[in-house]
Structures are given as structure tokens and as C-alpha cells.
Amino acid sequence: MKKKLVSNEDMTYICSELSFLLHAGVSTGDSLHIMSDDENRKEYGRLFGVMAEKADNGQPLDAIMEEEGVFPKYASNLVSAGTETGRLAECLKSLAAYYRRRVSIEEQLRTAILHPVFLLVVMIVIITVLMTKVVPVFNNVYLQMGQGLTGIGGTLFRIGQILDSAVPFLTMILFVILFLLVMFSISNSFREKMLDTWYGVSDIRGVLGKINRAKFSYGMHISISSGLHIEDILIISKLLVYSSPKMIKRIERSLEDIDSGISLSESLSNNKLLSAADCRLIEAGYRSGNIGIVIEQIAKRLADEAQRDLSNWVASIEPTLVMITSTVIGTILLAVMIPLINIMSALG
Hints:
Strand content: under 5%
Oligomer: single chain
């Protein structure tokens, strides 16, 4: 049976706590024993206890993570890189920063998706009820007066009849959508799979493109914190954009450029992994010896831009949906009420 992966929120805690304890000079085994003793959740208490025993027996942290099978593959690979270079604490600290930002972005993505889709479902339900239940009532009233709905009202009545026959099918679709919304909202694993699928169809443009580029930049930062060489930096960064085939192809082309003698900043610029301005900053960072700080700031800025774009999208889409709903409902009501007003005026 496949084990459930540790959530991004818990990965933030685990990496942060391990990094703090290792920086304080506590061994990996003792750090895991401390985490096991302090953990209130039984499953994690057991997990840290088992990991601590393996660490006491001499197993490195990356091998333990891979053996347990509950940690993302790319996380154990990154920890392996930090272990090999003797900078495990720095690697875990950078991983914690990455997961912390990833949790923040995905929480914002959840809001950006759930609210508009929920509004859209409510809009469809209201319009369907009006078209299939309310408009036919008005049509029957007009038939008793000697004439059914005509013009726009008549068109709406005919559309309502078609919708009425499709209500079972529409109801099934709405239930599926609501089920997916609930799963997306409450299940971390389901949400991550859905978002990974969404990331996979994105490139370097738009909000998702910025998120992928931020992930790539955080991968570079983690790699530099781990003391890796240029080629290894890109290989490790590729692990964090595993869900985007287009980004992976760009990274592979960049690796080929570096093998042919092109500098890291130029290869990143040529393959549009980062903007030309960011690549110039990376080149300056290499010359000044502050490449780690430069990459970290680029990653933070890209993540900030993605979150700001998400906020702007939510701020614009919700009023737009409300306006569309109000316009459609108003049009339906006017289409069935105006003939009645005309009849009342004629009788008066």
C-alpha cells in the first residue's frame, strides 16, 4: 500500500526544526529524538522515532527519508546534496523557506480557484431555476390571457424547455464540480495533484509561469546553500519544477549551453528561464561573491509577483461574475415582466 506523503505544511515544520537543531550543534539522531518527544500527533511521533533510530545506526538523513517513502523524492535528493557537501543545515533552512512560500502561494491559489468557481456554480443554479421554473409560470399566465411569451421572452421560454430536459445531466455535473471543490479545499494531496497538473500546462508566462520560475529560483538558492557546482545547481532546480515539462526542457537546454562553455547567466537568459535583468544580477552576484543572496532575492520577488497577480485576479474576477449574473437575471426578469406591464397599461 502506497504511503501518504508528508504535506507541504509539515515539510515546512520538519525542515525548519531540523535546520534549527543542526545549527545548534545537535546531531541528526538526537534532533529526530527531540522532535519525536515533542510531537503531539502519534503518526509523526512514530515516524520521527523510527527515523531517529535509523540515524543512530549511522544512516544519513537522505537515505532515511527515501526509505520511509513519505517524503517527496526531490526533497530527499536535495537533502542528499546538502549531506554530500557538509551543508545539511543550510540546505534544510533553504528548503523550509521554499516550503513556507509554497504553502502561502498554494493557499492563495486555493482561494483564487474556489471563490470564482463557487460563484459560477451559484450563478448557473439561479439562472437555471429562473429559466426552467419562473419563465414557464409567466408563459402560462400569458397563455390564459390569449397570447404566450414572444420576442426575447419567447426565446427564453424555449431555452428553458431545453434546460428543463437537461436538468438531470446538469445536476450530475454540478455535483461533480462541488465534489471536486470540496476535495480541492480539504485534501492536501488532491489539491497538490490538481495544481501539479495545472503547473504542467503552464510555461513561463502568466501567474503559473511566475510560480514555476519562483520554484526554479528557490531550487537554485537551495543548491547554492548546499555548496553545489553550477551544473548541479540546474539539475537540482529541475527537481522543483518536476510538474512542468516545458520548464524541464528549458533547463535541459540550459545545461547543454553550459556544457558548451556558455556562462550560467547567459544560458538562463537564452532559454528564458529568468529575465535578462535577473540574469545580469546573477552575473553581478557571481563577481561579488553574493550569488546566494541574489538568487534568494530573485526567488522572493518572483513569488511576491505571483501572489500579487493572484490577488489582482481574484479582485477582478469576482465583481465580473457578479455583474454578469445580475445582468442575466435582470434581462430574464425584464423579458417576462415587460409584456405584463404592457397588458396592464392597455387594460388601464
